[in-house]
Amino acid sequence: xxxxxxxxxxxxxxxxxxxxxxxxxxxxxxxxxxxxxxxxxxxxxxxxxxxxxxxxxxxxxxxxxxxxxxxxxxxxxxxxxxxxxxxxxxxxxxxxxxxxxxxxxxxxxxxxxxxxxxxxxxxxxxxxxxxxxxxxxxxxxxxxxxxxxxxxxxxxxxxxxxxxxxxxxxxxxxxxxxxxxxxxxxxxxxxxxxxxxxxxxxxxxxxxxxxxxxxxxxxxxxxxxxxxxxxxxxxxxxxxxxxxxxxxxxxxxxxxxxxxxxxxxxxxxxxxxxxxxxxxxxxxxxxxxxxx
Length: 292
Ligand SMILES: [Zn+2]
Fold this sequence. Notes:
Oligomer: single chain
Structural class: alpha+beta
Distance between the termini: 20 Å
CATH superfamily of the largest domain: lpxc deacetylase, domain 2
Radius of gyration: 18 Å
Helix content: 25-40%
Number of strands: 19
Largest sheet: 7 strands, mixed
Low-confidence stretches: 282-292
Shape: globular
Bound molecules: zinc ion
């Protein structure tokens, strides 16, 4: 049975926004039961829940917002919280973007582990995929089907000698996240940088917080995994899917996805009702599925 959890003590992180280029202080603060994940813009004295209805932009990052007040690049932190089972937390920031750290989720994972995880003695409903559901949007395809755990299978294709075709299927749990997904970094192509900068993105991007690819390979660095690129896409997908606000049960097969298709898929699946919010304890759920 999934339990509500928060962290035991506050944790402070400092970094820069990959898109804004600004220095940002981020504080993780324990929250009471039934709070959910709540971002607090200290500079605006304004809170936004990390939930799907508050997604206002998915261009190069997932952005939450209400009435023009925004929080950009929430996906890596949200993926970490989801995978480590943190369900109640205040995230205080003094700018409009979550710091990118080294482009992966390692620093967020370390911060949560160091702060300690506290069980809050109350169970949670599960977002369970009950019917196969297929979603297609331009070149992206996402297929969701019933499954006893939470699994993501991701396939990417890039016309680049270092990536070409990469595919990975992985059960999303704390251990797999820490070992296989959290270290995978954001990546970008040198040929796109001019366009990104011109349009106000990647102002804080550097070789310290992203894998930058030229025509042949990585500029000034090496890979943490041979398939680091697809692993990072899984990291993004966990963060985006977590915006449903519950632990997830289902298998998601994603081809050439991105923030826009992840979020639109989630909106569509909720609209079509291919899911159930299961409220009974997990062990009863398993017994009942075995008898069907
Ligand atoms: Zn990412």
